[in-house]
Amino acid sequence: MEESEARRLAERFCRGLTDAWDERGFELDLLGTPAVLGAFVFAWYPTAPDGAGRPARPGGNLPVLVDPRTGTCRQVRDRKELRPRPGPARSGGP
Questions:
Q1: Is the dihedral of CA 42, 85, 90, 66 positive or negative?
Q2: How high is the mean pLDDT of the chain?
Q3: How far apart are CA 1 and CA 18, in angstroms?
Q4: For the segment 21-48, what is each residue's pLDDT rounded down to a tens digit?
Q5: b/e sequence 37-56, b meaning 16+ C-beta within 10 Å
Q6: Secondary structure element (H or E) that encloses residue 73, with its range
Q7: d(CA 34, CA 37)
Q8: What angle do CA 83, 35, 17 make, to 5 degrees?
Q9: Predicted TM-score (pTM) of this structure
């Protein structure tokens, strides 16, 4: 799976978690790749002020993992999932 496809899937998943994706100007940042973490991992955060006019505060949203084999998305359950995998780098391919 290419990063662009993983990013598209992660955005679709995150849009399902908030009803303010467009209004808050949410963005995705790549945190990890299959070769290092075994999955694509994206942080997602708002860039626009909230409804009360307060500035955006990045953070607070759990990162999203995208399985490169199935395209399945889910939120990180444990910080350990963000640690590099031991052993040689993996290609992420079949």
A1: negative
A2: 83
A3: 25
A4: 888 889 999 988 887 788 899 999 888 8
A5: bbbbbbbbbbeeeeeeeeee
A6: strand 73-75
A7: 5
A8: 65
A9: 0.78
- Please count the CA atoms within 13 angstroms of the CA of 73 that sit on its side-chain side: 19
Mean pLDDT by 10 residues, the chain (94 residues): 95 91 89 85 88 73 91 87 65 46
Q: Which tokens belong to 43?
A: 């942080």
Q: Compute the half-sphere exposure of residue 1: CA atoms within 13 Å on the CB side of its CA.
A: 22
Contact present, 75 and 62 (Cβ < 8 Å): yes
Residue carrying structure tokens 């939120």: 75
Give the whole-angstrom CA distance, residue 44 versus residue 82.
15
Q: Write down the residue that tokens 């973490």 correspond to.
A: 37
